[in-house]
Amino acid sequence: MNKKDYIEKAEENLLHVYNRFPVIFDYGKGVHLYDELDQEYLDFASGIGVMAFGYGNEDYEEVLTTQIKRITHTSNLYYHIPMVEAAEKLTKASGMDKVFFTNSGAEAIEGALKTAKKYAYTKNGPGDYEIIAMENSFHGRTVGSLSVTGTEHYREPFYPLMSGVKFATFNDFGSVLANLSDKTCAIIMETVQGEGGLYPADKEFLKKVRQLCDDEGILLILDEIQCGMGRTGSMFAFQQYDIKPDILTTAKALGNGVPVGAFAVTQNVAENSLVPGDHGTTYGGNPLCTAAVSQVFDMFEDYKLLDHVNKIAPYLEQVLDVLVEKYDFITERRGLGLMQGLVLTVPVKDVVTKALLDEKLVVLSAGKDVLRLLPPLVITERDVDEFKQKIESVFDTLS
Ligand SMILES: *Cc1c(COP(=O)(O)O)cnc(C)c1O
Prior knowledge:
Largest sheet: 7 strands, mixed
Strand order of the largest sheet: 4-12-11-10-7-5-6
CATH superfamily of the largest domain: Type I PLP-dependent aspartate aminotransferase-like (Major domain)
CATH class of the largest domain: Alpha Beta
Bound molecules: pyridoxal-5'-phosphate
Number of domains: 2
Strand content: 15-25%
């Protein structure tokens, strides 16, 4: 069967909720992907920030293969060793105290929202259910996570959603204060907004929000599903801010390609929120996924990956800054670490499509005008140079 037939078959059988690019990826090696004709693509998207170690990593594959042969599922009614090890490594890396593993990012957000509501309920009884979320945020597609996602056109067809959500302006403390009420139980935000266009939280803003939460006895939920797991140069982005959330969500790169997420809480939250019977999942934290998580944390140490990110990110930034200077349709570079965006005055969708189809360069967009780069964390200077050459070829056709 040829490519056209596969694409037709896909559209015949899959619900049409994505306008997919006409590319079939078959396998990957390092930071490169290969299609069904063995054509090579440079990957600066990592499957939306998931494949931190790139493709075909043998250390990772060996651990997963061994685990598949041993056991892949037990349910959460019993203990198993990969989950115990993964939980210990995640609490150590995040400085949080207790972990719950999920199957996705959205599900981690669901758990975080339930935990915040239960915390308020335990402390004050019913009634404190309001949540302050940020405009321009993205937290997922399930009903709860969609309710706190700050893009009206994602939410509107599905009203009524979860009630009691108020939207404040990101990085505007006055706007957060204006939305505070005696019913507020939590404030949720991404430490670095991803889908919304690569906006890091301002240091002062996040500190003030943290202080406000302490003063009011409400919880700070930081969504690091995209910006966590080394992406910004620290294991979690909040670790560059001198503060700590009450609830942290992670997913995407947490398992380097297996579907896994988690929310993690402080001791205080753990002691005053969910109890047996309040929450659960059949698959969440299964032996296969948590073996991957455990191995991911080990590989961060073995490869000294954070040091590597902190060395390579400035090199990428430098290359991007040259592009900002060179092309007048690029107005700005934004982001943190290996989470970078170029703000364009030309339609970003055209750039992403041209890059993929003409230059075999995989990149992402964020919103209407930001070219988003989430390369594997293991990229080298050579990969950045290859990126530069490919993206310049695309940009040259536009100027
Ligand atoms: C991707 C993402 C989510 C949703 O994760 P899924 O695994 O797609 O459900 C939530 N928050 C942020 C910041 C994300 O980038």
